[in-house]
Fold:
Amino acid sequence: MRVSDLQTPALLVERSLLEQNLATMSAALPGARLRPHVKAHKTTALARLQAAQGHRGFTCATIREVEGMAAAGLGDDLLLANEVLDARSLGAVVEGGARVTVAVDSAQTVDAAADGGVREVVVDVEVGLPRCGCDPAEAGRIADRARRRGLEVRGVMGYEGHLMLETERKAEQTEECMSRLLAAHADVGGDLVSAGGTGTYAVNTWATEIQAGSYALMDTAYAATGLPFGQALTVLARVVSVSSKGWAVADLGLKSLGMDHGNPTLPGMLVWFCSDEHTTFSAEDGSALPAVGDLLRAEPAHVDPTVALHERMHLVDGAGPDAEVLESWAVDLRGW
Amino acid sequence: MRVSDLQTPALLVERSLLEQNLATMSAALPGARLRPHVKAHKTTALARLQAAQGHRGFTCATIREVEGMAAAGLGDDLLLANEVLDARSLGAVVEGGARVTVAVDSAQTVDAAADGGVREVVVDVEVGLPRCGCDPAEAGRIADRARRRGLEVRGVMGYEGHLMLETERKAEQTEECMSRLLAAHADVGGDLVSAGGTGTYAVNTWATEIQAGSYALMDTAYAATGLPFGQALTVLARVVSVSSKGWAVADLGLKSLGMDHGNPTLPGMLVWFCSDEHTTFSAEDGSALPAVGDLLRAEPAHVDPTVALHERMHLVDGAGPDAEVLESWAVDLRGW
Structure:
């Protein structure tokens, strides 16, 4: 099958760039130093490539991701880096033989883990991003409660998410965040200090493991920060209409693109706006407007919510419409 | 099953509001005056309720929607209000006994329709929104080409999408748009003048049929314009974390909400930001922050891309956590 045979819109993954991204990250963070986050690609076939690079532990954001990874035989060490109030589905995964650790940041989430049959937790600590995680001063008490409930406390996690797209003073700011996490760790104990992401992987030397996900496929928001990863993911679209007034329309839009970080990039083109199934654009100076029927590859601004809109991603080799589709992978970790 | 038994995040549809919305629109636009657009709900179970109100023709935005509607026995008169360059799948639906009409706005899309085995088209006319559709002056030539290719030309369509959220001079602006469509219709012929949407259904008296979709479920962007439809759709979420610093976090985010029209609304709460799986918020003056484990119902800003992120929607009766889940419908028209 060729790229031109695909029904548009469709997620494409350029093999050489994916392989290069995986190799670059594994060289920087070998083995257990990287706990790849599957929320960015939601695809067990891609997780399998990460496991083949020597990363046996994975980070998940949803119960469905934990279930899917375990079912795919990738359940050696799954960290659900998120709070849940009903952990019975996770307990069932543990019963099935996978290792599942869940984040807790309150008495209620500790109790949910214990009641649900999960055996291992990390204490989630708020390190500067106003989201989940307890205050460092509370972490010891939460760990105590977990141990009283018979749970193994493996350590702490924190996410300096507000620094991911930061380009100024990143190392210093990361250090400030991690000082909060290390203070909590001193009270909690355990082997794990799990933190970080694609934006801080190179500067976060305090965490024992980094939860990076976006590096594998990438997006234009991360690319703008100068990371050494290539734009492996694009959304294939077809030009369906060209106006005599100077604009053209491709068949990708709000239902095939995560829009929270802004419009997609069409190289050589100026994107006007996206609607449900369409993107209207004109040509930049020096570029020609494509013709009806032409294929384009749009670079999404945010990888995670883009992938979540698609059933499949297609591994391809080459940039043209005749490029071969090597494999088609189910985005099998979607949903809840 | 009760609402509190659902895995969050989950789409809820309040039965009384849905029924009221369907009845209000059907009273305004009875029978063939309304051609409900399925792109806003992507759910054949909901389309069946619209058909039961007497609307036998439907509007679709994708080939998958056409295929799914036909497979569900709702294929009496399906209009794909979008351009396609490969219509073979549509031809197969026609062969299967459904009636399929496709929009064309160029020689290439006319040829694709004819080559693909579609028998009926409408000429899509640009009426002010810079998207698909030919110039009115070109419409007659496109119709001629379609007839030469053996296609039945049923009329014209146009979409004054830029007026949907407009509140000033809506009728006058709609008239300007429709004057372009009627000029094209004079050259094209046929019975259909298909246009409009939820935002202009009450003022567009020039179209023979209105392609409204959002009215059934609604969103906060449309609600702000003062339409007589209630917010039937919400996203159920659970509070997973509450900070001692005054914010709380619920388990809905960029993967369960269309974000192009902005943040969701949490009644009584001030939404700070959404990330992939989380929404951080605080309480408005006079409201109490909910507790860990509490259920919330968020009102999405844009219905169409929100629905496209979910596998199912749940019909419920009542506002509390003990409200009964009456039916769970597959969002079976997703994808491409």
In short: The mean pLDDT of chain A is 97.
